[in-house]
Write a structure and sequence with these properties.
Low-confidence stretches: 188-192
Mean pLDDT: 91
Helix content: 40-55%
Distance between the termini: 47 Å
Order of helices and strands: EHEHEHEHEHEHHEHH
Strand content: 15-25%
Structural class: alpha/beta
Radius of gyration: 17 Å
Strand order of the largest sheet: 3-2-1-4-5-6-7
Length: about 250
């Protein structure tokens, strides 16, 4: 059994790798930071006796996504976890064009192309696409990030329905985490952070849902209730609330 995990160098990605290794999966772990991936490989191979391959890639580059796809999916692969992604804090018009393009390429394009490559090369298996509770509302000061996660949610649900009507035994599960103590806040430029779950518990819930071929799962009950509540409020109200939260959480 083999699994591919992007964004495997920190946070939930590390926990996905650990949990799959415990269950006997050989791994291909990918991220930009080779030193962290190599350290994780050493630990997992020694502790769990599985094969772990490191593939460093910058998924904001389409050529790197293609290179990863060709390396991973030319052989039997059972699981794909699209976990790579990031956010950039700031008013949309003040975020650099480079940062905006890199976010869209990593959060949307890479996930889309890797999902497509898995479906085109495999006959059965599981895909877990990591979105966010942010997918359910607009997000002032993290506008592109929130919008990218809304794409992941909609895209994954649509393609999963297509797969149900195909001859492929492949399912797509969308994981929507809430805030937790990972490097996301720091990388986004946050000055404050809070958490409703832990990366380990979130990863457990995500994998259990994926192997159960469920469409959607949240990191914890509080986040699932928060997502449900967004259905009853206008977008303008949600944007105002979200913007206030971002100001209080991120800005000095």
């Amino acid at each position: 059994m083999r699994a591919v995990i992007t964004g495997a160098s920190s946070g939930i990605g590390i926990e996905f790798a650990r949990l799959l290794a415990i269950n006997g999966y050989d791994l291909i772990i990918s991220a930009r930071r080779a030193d962290r991936l190599n350290a994780l490989r050493t630990v997992l191979q020694k502790k769990y006796g599985v094969s772990v391959e490191v593939f460093t890639a910058d998924l904001s580059e389409v050529s790197e996504v293609k290179r990863l796809s060709e390396y991973c999916f030319s052989r039997k692969t059972d699981v794909l976890i699209n976990n790579a992604g990031f956010g950039t804090l700031g008013s949309f018009h003040n975020v650099s064009d480079t940062d905006t393009a890199n976010l869209i390429n990593t959060n949307i394009s890479a996930l889309t192309l890797l999902t497509k490559a898995f479906i085109n090369t495999q006959e059965d298996g599981y895909i877990l696409n990591v979105a966010s509770v942010a997918a359910f509302m607009p997000g002032p000061f993290l506008a592109s990030y929130y919008a990218s996660k809304a794409y992941v949610l909609s895209f994954s649900a649509a393609v999963n329905e297509e797969l149900k009507q195909s001859d492929k035994n492949i399912s797509i599960t969308t994981l929507c985490p809430g805030p937790m103590k990972t490097e996301f806040f720091k990388n986004a430029g946050a000055s404050k952070e809070f958490a409703t779950s832990t990366p380990r518990n979130c990863a457990k819930r995500g994998l259990n849902a994926m192997f159960g071929r469920r469409n959607l799962v949240f990191s914890d009950t509080l986040i699932s209730l928060a997502a449900l509540s967004t259905r009853f409020a206008p977008l303008s109200v949600l944007a105002k609330i979200s913007g206030t939260v971002q100001r209080n959480k991120f800005l000095d």
